[in-house]
Design brief:
Blueprint: E1 2-6, H1 12-22, H2 31-40, E2 45-50, E3 53-63, E4 84-92, H3 101-115, E5 120-126, H4 130-134, E6 139-147, E7 150-158
Parallel strand pairs: 4-5
Antiparallel strand pairs: 1-2, 2-3, 3-4, 5-7, 6-7
């Protein structure tokens, strides 16, 4: 049975394991980057657990629409004029990708966002994940090179996302 709970600092080694299974090396972030996100907005950092094993996670925080959050840095601060909840990272271990783990993480994240008044969401889709995000109602705004030759799509959604 999968349970969703907040990520805590001691979970970061497990986060790094899931990340390595899900992303190309150019997209991997170091522990300090995850710890910074956790420090900035802990209620936007959720993990999916199968017993004591992390099988997926989502990291998010307030940000400004239209602006991409830097990758693998621990030197940024939340903007005072944030107007969206930025989904920085959603990763689900490959063995769990057909078990609705991502769906469960996002449902809990969007519920938290709703309770906190967030109704605009932004993200950067990588590794051909645009179709997944479109099913949540996100629309592409522009394509760009994210890092080290990694193609990406900046996407946004206004209103509470729901799976289509």
């Amino acid at each position: 049975m999968i349970t969703i709970r907040s990520i805590v600092p001691n979970d970061i080694p497990e986060v790094l394991k899931v990340q390595r299974l899900c992303y190309k090396p150019a997209l991997n972030e170091a522990a300090p980057a995850f710890l910074r996100k956790l420090t900035l907005f802990d209620k936007g950092c959720l993990g999916a657990w199968d017993r004591n094993c992390l099988c997926g996670y989502v990291f998010s925080h307030p940000w400004r629409s239209g602006e991409v959050v830097p990758l693998d840095t621990d030197s940024y601060a939340l903007p005072t004029n944030a107007d969206c909840l930025y989904i920085h990272d959603l990763a689900v271990e490959p063995a769990y990708q057909n078990h609705r783990v991502g769906h469960a993480l996002l449902e809990d994240l969007f519920e938290m966002a709703n309770r906190n008044g967030w109704c605009t969401f932004a993200l950067v889709a990588v590794q051909h994940s645009e179709r997944f995000w479109e099913r949540w109602g996100f629309g592409p705004r522009h394509k760009f090179e994210y890092t080290s030759g990694i193609n990406a799509t900046y996407m946004i959604r206004k209103g509470r996302p729901q799976w289509k």
